[in-house]
Amino acid sequence: SGIDFEIIIIDDGSPDGTQEIAEQLEKIYGSDKILLRPRPRKLGLGTAYIHGMKHATGNFIVIMDADLSHHVSLYFTYCGKQKEGNFDIVSGTRYKGSGGVHGWDLRRKLISRGANFLTQVLLRPGASDLTGSFRLYRKEVLQKLMEKCVSKGYVFQMEMIVRARQLGYTIGEVPISFVDRVYGESKLGGNEIVSFLKGLLTLFATT
């Protein structure tokens, strides 16, 4: 690709064999390209960002799920979008242009749509998809946002965009097609939904 890169894999004690696959990739491509940084248990998405960022050496950090729901070819689209507008953040959107979701049942679609609708009404964040996790950040911008954000779990993604708007960072969007994982199960459950609603109300009251 002509791009100097590294892939940092954060695994929180997942039972799906992620760490074993990552170790195989590390042997094939070398520890300078594949950096496996596991943790003993699930500690939250926000802390995973911090953990990975400590090991990142580049000027930009692209964050994506490792369950193949995000197509890696979009990486180049993100890079092009960033250069096009010199954006601080490039975020994938399932709810704009050619974006969409494949493989979700009606319940999951309603939860995602409902979460975004409530967020748009209450917070007016200036972005169409706040719960997605496929994003590109300038490293220094990500560091600054991490200092400001207090949420954990799925609320964290939403707070990152809200805080970015508050701090005046520029955000570009790329339509993406999100494909639900083929293997394993989503970690989204009742506790995460309740936490999201609490976090949404907290942001509404404090921003």
UniProtKB/TrEMBL annotation:
<keyword id="KW-0808">Transferase</keyword>
<dbReference type="GO" id="GO:0005789">
    <property type="term" value="C:endoplasmic reticulum membrane"/>
</dbReference>
<keyword id="KW-0464">Manganese</keyword>
<dbReference type="GO" id="GO:0006506">
    <property type="term" value="P:GPI anchor biosynthetic process"/>
</dbReference>
<protein>
    <recommendedName>
        <fullName>Dolichol-phosphate mannosyltransferase subunit 1</fullName>
        <ecNumber>2.4.1.83</ecNumber>
    </recommendedName>
</protein>
<dbReference type="GO" id="GO:0004582">
    <property type="term" value="F:dolichyl-phosphate beta-D-mannosyltransferase activity"/>
</dbReference>
<dbReference type="GO" id="GO:0006488">
    <property type="term" value="P:dolichol-linked oligosaccharide biosynthetic process"/>
</dbReference>
<comment type="similarity">
    <text>Belongs to the glycosyltransferase 2 family.</text>
</comment>
<dbReference type="Pfam" id="PF00535">
    <property type="entry name" value="Glycos_transf_2"/>
</dbReference>
<dbReference type="InterPro" id="IPR029044">
    <property type="entry name" value="Nucleotide-diphossugar_trans"/>
</dbReference>
<feature type="domain" description="Glycosyltransferase 2-like">
    <location>
        <begin position="4"/>
        <end position="145"/>
    </location>
</feature>
<comment type="function">
    <text>Transfers mannose from GDP-mannose to dolichol monophosphate to form dolichol phosphate mannose (Dol-P-Man) which is the mannosyl donor in pathways leading to N-glycosylation, glycosyl phosphatidylinositol membrane anchoring, and O-mannosylation of proteins; catalytic subunit of the dolichol-phosphate mannose (DPM) synthase complex.</text>
</comment>
<keyword id="KW-0256">Endoplasmic reticulum</keyword>
<keyword id="KW-0328">Glycosyltransferase</keyword>
<keyword id="KW-0479">Metal-binding</keyword>
<keyword id="KW-0460">Magnesium</keyword>
<dbReference type="InterPro" id="IPR039528">
    <property type="entry name" value="DPM1-like"/>
</dbReference>
<comment type="subunit">
    <text>Component of the dolichol-phosphate mannose (DPM) synthase complex.</text>
</comment>
<dbReference type="InterPro" id="IPR001173">
    <property type="entry name" value="Glyco_trans_2-like"/>
</dbReference>
<dbReference type="GO" id="GO:0035269">
    <property type="term" value="P:protein O-linked glycosylation via mannose"/>
</dbReference>
<dbReference type="GO" id="GO:0046872">
    <property type="term" value="F:metal ion binding"/>
</dbReference>
<comment type="pathway">
    <text>Protein modification; protein glycosylation.</text>
</comment>
